[in-house]
């Protein structure tokens, strides 16, 4: 039986960073047979009841009650981010039971878990789930064609004060970009969304420099060899995700920049640190090995699926979230 491949996609996202994560996994797939909604992993059933190879990277998730994934998903758990409690921008999610009993068994059956950040790694350690620090899959990004560098600095989702400061300290053009997606963007097809990602990443690749508070802008810039400056901020809800990567990118706090406590030259930009490269190389190697490995136990029997459904229903009744 021909190996089937699926890709994780979050249609309802308001952050193109989720689409960038999807694009990062897409580059390793010889073809895509299934587009799998990230928030409905527990309902995915392949057409011929076969197992489907899926790179499971990125941030998880809003609907923790829809865990664990069905047995039709043959996962590579890599560059994953979890937290046991999140409160961001007015919404909250808590999902400790994802890591209990039947939910935890999914991780144990597919160990080790590649952790995108140290926070996730500590969480896995506390649960005795085998893991390692993999870094983020977006550091493996590549684009077709060659860079055509322009004298432009893209500023991505930073404050107006930072934008004005940069404009007053450079001779280059300064242009604002955002990772926020509109409802119109969310209604685009998968193919259109991937095209939008490629267009955005092409801008980053061609830029003189990118200044951002977005991790999913900063890390792709490393992969695309574009100098990037990450603006740090002190929101504890983001701390665990960002701290890990401060050694990977040039960074400065907003206050240090505006007060000129730390000097940044926007005309003669600094090259990026290279720490990310050893993780990037291993990520590429691991993903290629997973994709090329022949599929084992390609079919899921009806009995196996029914037993899984019974366990999942009983587990989900315990009240996650």
Description:
With 321 residues, the protein is an alpha/beta fold. 35% of the residues lie in helices and 20% in strands. The protein has eleven helices and 13 strands. It has a five-stranded parallel β-sheet, sandwiched between helices. Strand 9, helix 4 and strand 10 form a beta-alpha-beta unit. Helix 1 crosses helix 6. The longest helix is centred in the middle third of the chain and has 17 residues. The protein is elongated. About 2% of the residues have low confidence.
> What does the radius of gyration come to?
20 Å
Largest sheet: 5 strands, parallel
Give the helix/strand class: alpha/beta
Q: Helical region count?
A: 11
- How much strand content do the residues show? 15-25%
SSE run:
EHEEEEEHEHEEHEHHEHEHEHHH
**Total number of strands:** 13
Report helical residue fraction: 25-40%
What's the shape?
elongated
Physical arrangement of strands within the biggest beta sheet = 10-9-11-12-13
Uncertain runs with pLDDT below 50, 5 residues or more? 86-92
- Average pLDDT level: 91
Distance between the termini: 39 Å
């Amino acid at each position: 039986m021909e190996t089937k491949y699926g890709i994780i996609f979050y249609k309802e996202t308001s952050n193109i960073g989720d689409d960038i994560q999807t694009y990062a996994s897409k580059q390793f797939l010889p073809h895509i047979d299934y587009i799998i909604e990230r928030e409905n992993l527990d309902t995915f059933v392949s057409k011929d009841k076969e197992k489907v190879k899926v790179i499971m990277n990125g941030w998880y998730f809003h609907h923790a009650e829809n865990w664990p994934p069905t047995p039709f998903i043959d996962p590579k758990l890599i560059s994953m981010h979890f937290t046991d409690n999140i409160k961001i921008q007015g919404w909250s999610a808590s999902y400790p039971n994802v890591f209990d009993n039947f939910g935890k068994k999914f991780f144990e059956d597919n160990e080790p878990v590649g952790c995108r950040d140290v926070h996730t790694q500590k969480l896995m350690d506390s649960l005795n789930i085998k893991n390692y620090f993999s870094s983020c899959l977006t550091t493996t990004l590549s684009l077709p064609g060659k860079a055509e560098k322009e004298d432009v600095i893209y500023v991505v989702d930073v404050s107006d004060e930072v934008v004005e400061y940069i404009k007053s300290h450079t001779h280059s053009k300064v242009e604002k970009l955002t990772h926020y997606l509109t409802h119109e963007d969310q209604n685009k097809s998968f193919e259109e969304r991937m095209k939008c990602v490629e267009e955005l990443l092409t801008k980053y690749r061609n830029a003189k420099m990118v200044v951002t508070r977005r991790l999913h802008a900063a890390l792709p810039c490393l992969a695309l060899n574009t100098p990037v400056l990450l603006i740090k901020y002190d929101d504890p809800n983001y701390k665990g995700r960002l701290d890990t990567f401060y050694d990977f990118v040039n960074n400065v706090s907003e206050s240090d920049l505006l007060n000129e406590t730390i000097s940044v030259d926007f005309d003669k930009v600094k090259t990026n640190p290279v720490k990310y490269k050893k993780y990037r190389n291993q990520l590429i190697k691991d993903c290629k090995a997973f994709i090329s490995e022949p599929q084992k136990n390609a079919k899921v029997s009806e009995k196996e699926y029914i037993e899984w459904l019974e366990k999942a229903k009983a587990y989900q009744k315990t009240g996650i979230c």
